[in-house]
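Appendix B, Record 12. Input sequence as logged:
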Amino acid sequence: MEMQKHTSLLFLAYVSGVLAALEFARSSVVASYSPNMSCIWSEKQALLRFKRGLFDEFNYLSSWVGDDCCSWRGIHCSTTSHVIELDLRNCALRGDQIINSSLLDLKYLNYLDLSFNNFNEIEIPDFFGSFKELTYLNLSSSNFQGLVPHHLGNLSTLRYLDLSNNYDHDYDYDYAYYNSLRIDSMRWVSGLSFLEHLDLSTVDLSEASTDPFSTKKIFPNSISVLKLAGCQLDNSIFSSVSCKNLTSLVSLDLAYNHFNHSFPLWVVNNSGLVQLNIGSNNFRGPIPKSLESLTALSKLDISDNNFQGYIPQSLVKLSKLAHLYIDSNQFIGSLSESYCHLSNLEILSVSENQLSGNIPKCIGELSNLSELRLHDNYWDGFVSEHHLMNLTRLKWLTISSKSNLVLNISSEWEPPFQLERIAMMSLKVGPCIPLWLQRQREFTGLELRNTSISIIPTDWLVSLVSHAYFVDLSDNDINGEQLLFISTHSNHLHTLSLSNNYLSGGFPLFICNLTSLMILVLSNNNLSGELPKCLGNLSELSELDVMDNNFSGDIPVSLGSLGNLTYLNLHNNKFQGKLPLSFHSLANLVVLDAGKNHLSDILPQWTREQLPFLKYLILRSNSFHGKIPTQLCHRSSIQVLNLAENQITGSIPPCFGNFSSMITGGSTELNKGLENDIGEMIRYNVKGSDLQYTSNLKFLFSINLSNNNISGEIPEELMELHGLTNLNLTGNRLTGRIPDKIGELRKLDSLDLSRNELNGPIPQSLSELNSLSSLNVSFNDLSGRIPTGRQLQTFNDLSIYAGNDQLCGQAILKPCAGDTESRNPQNDSEVETDLCSDDERLWFYAGAGPGILVGFLIFCGSLHFFESWRYSFFHYVEHVFDKIAVTSALWRRKFKN
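Logged structural output:
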C-alpha cells in the first residue's frame, strides 16, 4: 500500500508540476484582487465582442454584464485588474463564426481554456499564436477543424497545449472519436522550448510524417507528458532521433496508430517514465528485456498488438506497476507465479492471448486488484475460491477458456468483494446460479455465456435487471416460461441478451418497462405469440433481434416510432400481413431483415429522404409480389439486397447501377450502433447455404433476386457494381445474353445465373474473375465454347454447365466445331508423339555413337596436354579405390565375427 502511495505521489509530482505552478501564480494574483477595483474597460469590451460571436444556449455567460468583468464567470484578473485567465471549459458554447480577434486586447492573458464546446468546424485562428504571455492553451474536444496554424509555434512561454479529442482507454476500446484537425509539419512544436504537456490525440499527423523535418529532433527536452493517440502515425515520424533526450518524459501515449515494427527501443531510454501506452498498433516480436529499466513505471499498456513469445519475466522487476494491459496479443506459455509479486497491481489484463496451463492461485494474494481480465485463453485446471479469496477490492472479473478450465467454487463461499462487472464464458457454472454470485448485489454488468445455466432465481433476476446496465445470459439452457411472470422495471438497463436458449411462451412483457433499453436480443428461442405494441415505448432502442423464434401475427406498427433503431432482425418467424408503413420513419435504420416469414405485400416504395442509412435489406422467403419499385434505387448506400424466393415480376431496374456502395466496395464500417458484438448479425444465403455473418458482415456486397418470376435482360448497369461479391439471379425467366462486361466484377466470389432463359455464348471476360469460387450457369440456352482461364479451370463440377446442349469445350469434355473429333488435346499430343517417335529415335542413335567417341577423345587429350589435370584425376581415382578397399575390408571382418 505504501509503495502504491509513493508511485501515485511521484506521478502527480511530475505531471502536475506545471499546473501547480500556474495555479499558484494565478491564485496569488487573484487573491490580491480587490472587488472594489474594476477591470480594464478595453478588456471588458474585448470580451463582450468575443461573446457576441458565440451562441450561449444554456446562459452560462449570463453573468457577463456590468462594469466589473473580473467578477464574470470564467474570468480571472491580476492585482492590476488585467484579465489573465479565460476559462470557459464545458460551457456548451457554440461558435458558428470566426472567433473575434478582439481577444488580442487581453495582452496579459496567460491561460485560455475553450475545451468541450462546439465551434462548428471552424479553423483555429492564427491570432491564437500572438498571445505573448500565454502558458496554458486547451482547445480539446471543441470541434475545430482544418490545419493547425503554425503560428502556435510563436507561443514562446507555452507550457501546456491540448488540441485533442477526449477519450478514456480504460473504458473505450473502440476509440471511435473523430477529430478533423491536422498538422502538416511538426517544426513549430520544436520551438516551444518550455512546453511540458502536449496532447494531440486524434489530430491527423499523417502529413507531418512526409516532412523531412520529422527525422530530426521534434520535441523539446522539457516535455513531461506527450499524448499522440490516434494520430495516424507510422514508423517514419518516430525514431531515436526525433525523440532524443526526452529526459523529463513521465507519460507517453502512442496508442491507436499504425506502427508496425518491433518494440520501440528508444522508449526504454526514458528511465523516468511513469505511464506508457503503445496499445492498438501493430508492434510485433518479443518484448525486450531492457524494459525492466523503466523502474518508475506504474501503468504499462501494450495491448492489441502482435507481440509474440512468452510474457517476459523482466516485467516482474517493475515493482511499481499498478495497471498492466498485455491483452490481445499472441503471447504463449503460462502466466508465471512470479507476477504475484507485483503487489501494487490494481488492473491485470492478459485476455485474448494464447496462454495455457493453470491460472496461478497466488493471484488471490494481489489484494489491491480491482480488475482481473483472463478471458479468451487456453487455460487448463480449475478456478476455485483460493484464486479470489483475498481480492477485497475486486470490481471487474472476466474468465473464459478455449480449453478445459473448470469452475470449482463452493456454493457456500462468502466472497470478500462486491463485483460491478463479471464475465464468465465457456465455463460450467450451472445449472443454477451459484449462491456466491447471487450474493453480489452491485452488478452493473453481467455476462454468463455458454455456462450451462438452466434455472434463474426470479428475485435475483429482478434485482439484477433493476440496477444493472448490461445483462447477457445467451448460449445457455434457460428454458420454459421462467420470464413470463417477472414484474419489474428499470431506467438503467441498456443491454439485455437471452439468445440461444430454450425460452418458450409469449414475449416477456416486463421488457416493455426497461425504459433505457438500447439493445434487446432474444434470437434462437421458442418464443411465440405476437410482439407487443408496448415495444414502441422503448424510445432508446437501437437494436432489436428476435430472429429464429415462432412469433406470429402482424409486425407492430409501433416499431416505426423507434427513431433510434439501427438494427431490426425479424428473420425466420411466422409474421404475416404487410411491412408497416410506419417503417419509413426509421431514419437511422441500417439493417432490416424480415426474411423467412409469411409477409404478403408489394415491395416498399420508400422515398429518397426515407431510410437514408439503410445498407442491408433482406426480405427473402416471403410472398412479396409485383414489380421492383424504382424508388429502391434511391437507397444508394445499399450493400446487401436479398429479395429471393418471393413472387416478384417485371424486370431488374437498370437504376440498380446507382448503388454506390456496391460500386466502390462501400465503407467497411457499419453505421452508428452496430459496433456491438451482440447485435451485428444477419443470416444470408450464399452458394446455396445459409451462413451467419457477424464481424465479416461489413465485407458482404450482394444482390440476390433468385427464385422469383423476373423477366427481361440482365441490365448492363449491373456491371458497374465493381464492389459486388455475390450475384444470384437463379430461378427466374431472364432472357438475352450474359453481359460481356461481367468480367469487370473483379471482386465477385459467387455467381449464379442458372435456371433462366439466357442465350448466346458465355463471355470470355468471365475467365478474368480471379476471385470467383462458385459458378452456376446451368439450364439456360447458352451456346458456344466455354471460356478457359486459371480460375475457371478449378471448377471440376460439370453440372454447373448442365442443361445447355449447345455448349462445348474442354470444361465439359465436349469438342467444339472445328476441333478434331474423337480426340481430345491430350490424345492428339500422344498420337503426334507416336508419329514422330521413329524418326526421332533414328536420329538419336545416329548421333549418340559419334558424340560419345568425340567426348572421350577430348577427355583423353586434356589429360595428355594438361599435367595438373592428369595428376588431379589419377589422384582422385586412387582415393576412390582406397576408400572402396577399406570399406570392403571392414565388411569382411564384420561377417567373420
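The longest strand covers residues 83-87.
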